[in-house]
Amino acid sequence: MLSAIRASKVDLVLLAVAIVWGASYLSAKAITPFATVPAMLSVRFGIATLAMIAIWLIRRNKFSKTDLMLGTLFGLTQSAIMTVETFGLKITSATNAGLLISLTIIFTPIMESAWKKRWLPRSFFLAAVGAIVGVGLLVTGNGIQEPNWGDVLLFIAAIVRAVHVTAQGVLTKDREASSFNMILMQCLTATVVFFIFDIPGAFDAIATFGPAQWVGTLFLALFCSVFAFVAQLWAIRRTSASRSSLLLATEPIWAVVIAVLFGGETLAILGIIGAAVIIISTYIGQGIESKHREQLENS
């Protein structure tokens, strides 16, 4: 009973992350025309880093060697994800991007199973494929555009994101490490990386951003970075990378819901069916993964 309550708590945290990331598209849309990708991301992660440093000064949790090393590593992989994904989104359509990024659902359990040399049941992968089909139905209201270099970048981003999530789950398992400290290092590393790539652009963005851009940047920094990264790592360390990726697959649903409610977009019947398929596939996949993990723990 207690383990079921803990699992539900972890699932709710991951769903909250999916909702926040789903809301990030509208915020990013208001910012990208006003700054280069590295400049925008350096300001975003710079604010996130300052916020986390302020919290750390209150908590004063000592940094371990693991915190520093893994936090820096995760910062580099996160920088790679954000760079490739953002440049890809500038070239390809949101439809193609949604489909390609959703491939993380498949890549993550494959990588995690190969790393641990313990394969998940075939039924889990069927559920993951079902979730991807749901994403396809959800985002194809305007049709799928012809492939381009942006699609290649998004495909690479899906692979890197899967590596990132798998590494967080495997490398932090059973280690004495602070999730908060690791994410602080992750944000600091990302800030330095993006700032170095466009120092003048970062200062220009700070000087020229209007109220709308600052509101969007603060949301991306505090909710989509600080909260989401800490919550994601906290949850992954208490479940599995595969289960996490499946729950985070609901992100497109929240992106569409928020776009409909606040962005003036519409959702066709095909999109509603797609959302239902994602929810059903995710629910089935959760059950399969939980049962499989319990069997391993009891064997």
TrEMBL record:
It holds the Pfam family EamA. It is found in: Cell membrane. One of its GO terms (cellular component) is plasma membrane. InterPro entries: Diverse_Substrate_Transporter, EamA_dom, EmrE-like. Residues 10-139, 149-284 form the EamA domain. Its main location: membrane. Keywords: Cell membrane, Membrane, Transmembrane, Transmembrane helix. It is a multi-pass membrane protein. The chain crosses the membrane at residues 38-58, 70-88, 94-111, 123-140, 152-171, 183-203, 215-234, 268-285. Coiled coil: none annotated. This is Unannotated protein. It comes from freshwater metagenome. The lineage of its organism: unclassified sequences, metagenomes, ecological metagenomes.
